[in-house]
Each structure stands twice: as structure tokens, then as C-alpha cells.
Amino acid sequence: MALLTDLINLNLSDYTEKIIAEYIWVGGSGTDLRSKARTLPGPVTDPSQLPKWNYDGSSTGQAPGKDSEVILCPQAIFKDPFRKGNNILVMCDCYTPQGEPIPTNKRYNAAKTFSNSIVEAEETWFGIEQEYTLLQKDVNWPLGWPIGGFPGPQGPYYCAAGADKAFGRDVVDAHYKACLYAGVKISGVNGEVMPGQWEFQVGPCAAISAGDHLWIARYILERITEITGVVLSLDPKPIPGDWNGAGAHTNYSTKSMRSDGGYEVIKEAIHKLGLRHKDHISAYGQGNERRLTGRHETADIDTFVWGVANRGASIRVGRDTEKSGKGYFEDRRPASNMDPYVVTSMIAETTLLWQPN
Amino acid sequence: MSLLTDLINLNLSDCTGKIIAEYIWIGGSGIDIRSKARTLSGPVSDPSKLPKWNYDGSSTGQAPGKDSEVILYPQAIFKDPFRRGNNILVMCDCYTPAGEPIPTNKRYNAAKIFSHPDVVAQETWYGIEQEYTLLQKDVKWPLGWPVGGFPGPQGPYYCSAGADKAFGRDIVDAHYKACLYAGIDISGINGEVMPGQWEFQVGPSVGISAADQMWIARYILERITEIAGVVLSFDPKPIQGDWNGAGAHTNYSTKAMRSDGGYEVIKKAIGKLGRRHKEHIAAYGEGNERRLTGRHETADINTFIWGVANRGASIRVGRDTENNGKGYFEDRRPASNMDPYVVTSMIAETTILLEE
């Protein structure tokens, strides 16, 4: 198949100015990613210079067949790690032909929140820890697990190496470099507590870009699992029983929190989040009740508790932050299948714009 | 196999002035593509400078054994993405030794239509959306489908990624770059609604070149599936039941349609097409009746309807065109196995040359 690889790896820049742009959007379920490609006459670095496009929304549960066009608005550009050269990935959001955001377009409201002058002045930063599970194709059982059975109990797998402990590192490492190539702000990776589960982190990203970077990182991950013949799962509790779930812990700070006296600001923010616990939980991902049980390093879904260095809490504050009197905190509630546009903007909204009655 | 790859990838320009030209033609079924190669003494960029050639028509159902020579006339040159260097692909059409186009040569009449002054003046543009299905070799069951069974129902596959949703992307991506390399106006690709089905688009291209480019793009695709050990199908309804068919939607515009007031010209053109619906359908691909059922984003084969943004119509006009009052429209009727020479020239003929 070397000839196929030669063709896939052709460096078009040697022959033409044309580039290929892969337009990416979030589909009708809110977690499925879709994409298609088009040829453009030359390199583009600014999303505002990219043409709008459209797709068949009736095929993704986002429009009826009789009026099926959904408009794609380019919002962020990344380098394409698969096609390389001047080719690009484009994160888009979706609108009706009349220019209204469609119901599944969560970016639109997030962008409004992030362009609020109070929010902008606070320079919100986010670091998102995306956990995910790799499954064997066709059987949908975690990678490395015996079919029809279970591996030994959790303990040896977290940050492990070894053919009997770490399953799928080639996916993880390829993803890490591909994201760095693409310009995604990936800050690290680690093997997780449940075998076959991994984590990468994106951040610190400012405001809306956290959501853009995380969605592109997810797209790149799904493309890489496709190449390796393994299935990506963002389910928050893929295996019931004494096995960890998968979350998307969201680390957060504002300018005030990062400045002297920030620890008081942090405590106030956490207090507000506690008052809106139910609202946040309902927006933090489907199926989270199977994960937030109070066991396996989670707090129970109905309980709001925060603490320093406490992994059984809803919100954890690091010891460094406590010592320095300033820093950031970690919302551990979001599920792995959360929408980062929703979670990041809601945290900003509650802590900066919302007042308790 | 690295020694083999070394040889395949030898850069001949380092060693000789000679080039290899792959002459490509359409075979006796109207959908099978044939080709053979010859050495030429140096680089050629103009088809009129290429020699005519011939082949054994009795081996392709295009001539009797006793008088088997079919003459190949070079019509268009593209860069060869497999041999690279100065090597070329040559799209040809077929003639008897006496100089008459053979019956399966649909390019000849298309060229006549496209050189008619009224058609030339209108600068007909085409964008063709070629859908196709990848099949597992030997079992001829779609790629990614369990042998003896079916995948989950349609929904997750359109434009998807993932090992459980997208099957054969390496073929699609290799094809995209190979076509760009070759000089084809390939404008995009996407995964289709049925798993194992894909689409690429060629255009906008003017006149006869739309079809030349589409045939070469099909040839390149078949060569790539050959490398990948997967079978290419242009059947318009490869799997019966609740699975989408495969089409070759043909987007079309003329100078008048692209100018101010063009929307009225478009509506007139659609009216003319509606009155010749049966004739067009008869020329739009074999087996299309299995595909045009009124379900799965098609209009029923016996019905002619058009609408804005309506994927269940025979002809769809985009919202942009409606809003701007000018643009283009999409004929959704052609099957994936249509002959682009026939379809493009027939649309031009009906909308420009035939009177109301």
C-alpha cells in the first residue's frame, strides 16, 4: 500500500497554490462531529476570509428534508495534521439560511457571554482535562480487555507502561503531536485509572477558544482512532461497576483570581457555583448520573462540596493556589461528553455575571 | 516490497527524455474504463501533438473480431499521479478506421453541442457530484459492513469520522490529492449517508471539459481502489431496502443565469427540462428506477418537481441563488453510472438550443 501512502502524503504545494479546507461542525446529537472538505484557491490564515458553506441538515438530524440547508460559518482555523502542507481544519458553527443559530449551535450563546465587557475584562482562562475510552471495534469492549471477561482490578494502570497495563498509546502519542502540529493548545497526556482509558488536556485557553480547541482536539482524536481501527467513546461511565468513569474536569481562573487576594475571589465564585449546582449539572453532559456516584473520585451528583486537594469533591482547589493566595480551581463535575462551549461559558456567566437573588 | 516501490517510484526524468502516456477510453458497456500505455519521445502538453492510437475493440465489445481496430483520438491531457514526473494520462474517444465515431462514443455529439455558437456564448458551467460505493473484494459487500449482516441504520455516517462510521477514507483522501495533482478541478469530498459510500465533486468546469475531467477522476479512483484491494461500484442502488442510492447530481449554470435577472432564466430552463423529463431520464443512467423512488432524498422517477433547498425534488435550487436572484441549479436525477458527456450536453441542448 506504499503507493496509497505516497498519494495521501503528496505535497500539493509543489504543484498548485490550491489548498484543501476541512469544515468541521457539531452534529444533531450534540456530541457527534461531522466534516467535509472543499478546495480553495490559495492559503488562508484568517477565518473571516473563508467562505461560508452549507450542508444537508436532514442527514444529521438538524433540518427537515424539504428545507435542508444548514449554513456553516467558519470560526477558527488549525493546520491539518493529516493532509499537512497549507491544508487546514476549520471549526464552524451552524445557522439557518436566515442567519439564526440552529438549536444545537451552543457556540453562539457562548460567544455572546464571552464578549460581554465584564467577562472580557476578567480574561477567563480554561484548562480542560478530556478523559476518553478506547474500545475494540465491533464488540465495543475496552481496548486491551479480554472479550467476554475483565482485566485485573484498577490500581496498576494509571500512568502505567507495559503491554499488560497500557493499551493504545500509539493513538495517544500520535494525537499529542498531531494536536501540537495543528496549533491546538494541548498541554499534556496521561494514562487513566481504568485500563483503556486516557486523558489529554487542552489549555490554558482564553474564553471561546477553549471550546474551539477542545472540539478540534476531539475531531483529530476520532480521525486517529479511525486510522487505527479502534472506536472512541466519550461516554461518562462506559463500564458499570468498580471501574472509573470519564470526565472533563474544567480548570478555571479569572484575572482577579490570578492576582493578589485572588483566593477570596475564588471562594466567592465557588459559592455562586454551589447556589446554581442543579442548573450546572443539567448542562454538564448526558448520563452523568451514572458517573457522579460519590465513588471513583467523584462527588455525588446531588451534593455540592468543595475542598483543597480533594478529588472526591465537586470542586477542587489545588494546594498551590491555597498557599499562594491566588490561582485557579477545578470543576470536576462535567462529564467527558460535555459541550465545552456550554460548560466554559456557563462557568463564566455564573461566576461573573449572575447574582443570587 | 520496498524494491518494487523503488522501481515504481523511479524518477525517469533523471535518466531519459522519454515519457509514458496512458491512453484512456470508455469501453463497450458505457461505464467500463480501459487504458494502455505507450512511450513517447518527450514531454507533451497539447493533445493535438499526441499521436492517434488504436486498440482491439473485439476485446471490449466495441468491434467485431474480423475488423477489430478502434482508433483512439487524444482529447485531453492530465498529469499522471501514479507515474508522476512528466508522464501523462490522456482522455481519448473512439472512432472507426474510416473516421466515424463508434456507437459508444458519446463525446463526439457532446462536442458538437458544446461547439454550437449559442452554447459557447452561454459559457455553460458544470459541477458534478459523483457518489460511489466501496465494496469488499470477492464478497462484493460494502466496505465496513459485516459479511452476512448489516451495519446500524443510516444516521451516524454522513460526514462522520471514526472506525465504526467512516470506511475507506484513505482511498478518498489519496484520490483528492491525486486529482489535484493531475490538474482536475476537484472541488471537494464528503462521506455519504450510506456507510461505505462517498462523494467527490468536480467543477465548476466549462463545456466538454467537465465530462473529460469526470472520466479521468473516475479512472484515477478505480486505479486507487485497485491499489487498496477494494472494489469500486457506480451502481445507483447497490443495496436494496432502507439504504441510500448513489447519484451524480449535476449542478449547472449559464452566463445568463449567473447575471442579474438570472433567476427567471433558471426558472425557464427548469420548465424546459420538465417538459423533456422522460427523455432525460432515459439518458441519465441504467438502473436509475431502483434509485429514484421518492424516498432517500430522491424524487420518484416518474415525477418532475423542483424546489428551493428541497432534497426530495428532481431539481433543487439553492437558497443563495433564490436570495441573490441569480446563480445555478442542481439536477438531482442523474444516476452515479451516468455518462457525463451525455448528461452535460443534454442539459445544455434542452435549456439553450431547444425552443419552448
TrEMBL record, chain A:
Q: Which UniProt keywords apply?
A: ATP-binding, Cytoplasm, Ligase, Nucleotide-binding
Pfam family name, one: Gln-synt_N
Can you list the GO cellular component terms from the UniProt entry?
A: cytoplasm
Where the record annotates domain GS beta-grasp, the positions are 19-99
Instruction: Name the domain of life this protein comes from.
Output: Eukaryota
Biological process GO terms, please? glutamine biosynthetic process
Which residues does the UniProt record annotate as the domain GS catalytic?
106-357
Which compartments is it annotated to reside in? Cytoplasm
- EC class, as a word, reads ligase
Q: Where are the stretches annotated Disordered?
A: 37-63
A GO molecular-function term, please? ATP binding
**Chief location of this protein within or outside the cell:** cytoplasm
This chain belongs to which protein, by name? glutamine synthetase
Origin species, per record, is Zingiber officinale (Ginger)
Question: What lineage does the source organism belong to?
Answer: Eukaryota, Viridiplantae, Streptophyta, Embryophyta, Tracheophyta
UniProtKB/TrEMBL annotation, chain B:
A cellular component annotation (GO) from this entry: cytoplasm
Q: Which domain of life, per UniProt?
A: Eukaryota
Q: Which residues form the GS beta-grasp domain?
A: 19-99
Compartments annotated for it: namely:
Cytoplasm
> Do you know which InterPro entries this protein is assigned to?
Gln_synt_N, Gln_synth_cat_dom, Gln_synth_gly_rich_site, Gln_synth_N_conserv_site, Glutamine_Synthetase
Root EC class: ligase
Molecular function, one GO term: glutamine synthetase activity
Q: Which UniProt keywords apply?
A: ATP-binding, Cytoplasm, Ligase, Nucleotide-binding
Question: Might you give the EC number(s) for this enzyme?
Answer: 6.3.1.2
Is Nucleotide-binding one of the keywords? yes
Q: Name one Pfam family in it.
A: Gln-synt_N
Q: List the residue ranges forming a coiled coil, or say none.
A: none
The UniProt entry's sequence similarity note says: Belongs to the glutamine synthetase family.
Protein's UniProt name: glutamine synthetase
Instruction: Say which species the protein is native to.
Output: Zingiber officinale (Ginger)
* Biological classification of the source: Eukaryota, Viridiplantae, Streptophyta, Embryophyta, Tracheophyta
